Amino acid sequence: MQDRTKNTDATKRPRGRPRAYEPETALRHAADAFWRSGYAGTSLDDLSAATGMNRPSLRAAFGDKHDIYVKALSDYWDRKFALMGEVLAPGRPLAETLLQAYDAALGIYFSGEGQPRGCFVVGTAVTEALEDPVVREIVSDGFIGLDARFRDRIELARAEGELSADVDSDALALLASATMHTIAIRARAGRPREELQALARKAVAAICR
Amino acid sequence: MQDRTKNTDATKRPRGRPRAYEPETALRHAADAFWRSGYAGTSLDDLSAATGMNRPSLRAAFGDKHDIYVKALSDYWDRKFALMGEVLAPGRPLAETLLQAYDAALGIYFSGEGQPRGCFVVGTAVTEALEDPVVREIVSDGFIGLDARFRDRIELARAEGELSADVDSDALALLASATMHTIAIRARAGRPREELQALARKAVAAICR
DNA sequence: TGAATTTTGTACTTCATCGCATAATATGTA
DNA sequence: TACATATTATGCGATGAAGTACAAAATTCA
């Protein structure tokens, strides 16, 4: 048997000096920094301060600034899609479902400590997408994916007779995505949460009319 | 009479060495640089290269980087509002009017040499709006102004019987703005112009249904 | 106890960025 | 022609940013 005096955990530790951070929470803190100031507006020192890691550790763990950003961006999409997957599940009226989707999004857009921050993608990645092919593809694929989720859910409502049979599910899905985008933009532009909730209600009513 | 041998223009020139640039075109070129790389991603050297002016001249003419950006942003809104004012004028069917509004917007979003660039506000200012109160207010005011233009035009169509009397003009205006925003975002994310034109057609059909 | 291993922390180098000081240039005015 | 004026052009200094080399620290393994 092996000696385990120094390792009280059940999990087997790797060999050298243990990490002083959890990779997932560190990446989350790095994302917070990017979320605040954007990609170009965030320095490695900012990331270092946000994560509590020094620059060499940051590099060893996640790569350079661009690598860190791409990881944070992908992680954001993952969480957003997971959330939307839950919220858009069938079983409730379409209007209620859409409203909850926007409410869930607002929960993310106003998740900053003290101040709102909008959508990570719309607020930071869209700016970089023009000159950064990697970011551009991640952003583009995400938007298309969200369109598809909305379309599937709306098409379901149409098939079940909740919407008139002659509506265009694609068109309504685009309006649903557009509403998400406009909320994301306005949140970062400082519009208050209640105003955006009211906007969502009006938009949903118009889409489901 | 004064001697005018050196001044062939009819306009009275100021006293010292003449400027080597036109302020308006220089500001436009500076805006192009910001439009490409965003506020934080653009250096004074970039602006210098884009305008052909050296840094001291830039500063003397427009102030520091932030001043230049704010001037470019305000100028962009001015031109966009002028364009929307023309396009949203009454006299044609609402659907045709909205379609032309999106077409005009696409004309701006694809006005870059060779490559698309999206909306200056959505693509660059929204990122800064979070931490820059001056930018935030300009952005927010602009969005609210565009909402109002759309609402007025839609309300006119409703009052004239073009839309059913029980539609909510505010709600439809929000969808019209949202459609503009989603087009702006997607253009910067690299979606082709034809796709966005098709999107606009579907959105307009759904809004005016 | 000591070697091996992995991470941390400090510091150094290089380059970019910004503001400003100063000289050169091009005009109008006397 | 000389001078005043306003701009352009060059360059310096301080600061920030990014990458990396190297020693110190904390752990596992023999």
Question: How would you describe this protein?
Answer:
2 copies of one chain form a homodimer. The first copy, chain A, is mainly α. Helix content of chain A is 68%, strand content 0%. The first copy, chain A, contains 9 helices and no strands. Chain A has helices spanning 23-37, 44-51, 55-62, 65-87, 94-109, 120-129, 133-159, 169-188, 193-207. In chain A, helix 5 packs antiparallel against helix 9 (193-207) and helix 8 runs antiparallel to helix 9 (193-207). Chain A is elongated. Chains A and B meet through helix 6, helix 7, helix 8 and helix 9 of A and helix 6, helix 7, helix 8 and helix 9 of B. The structure holds a DNA duplex (30 and 30 nucleotides).
How many angstroms does the end-to-end distance of chain A come to?
70 Å
Q: How is the quaternary structure best described?
A: homodimer
Helix residue percentage of chain A: 55-70%
- Structure classification of chain A: mainly alpha
Major sheet details of chain A: none
**Overall geometry of chain A:** elongated
Q: Using CB atoms under 8 Å apart, which protein chain pair has the greatest interface?
A: A-B, 49 and 48 residues
Uncertain stretches of 5 or more adjacent residues of chain A: 1-10
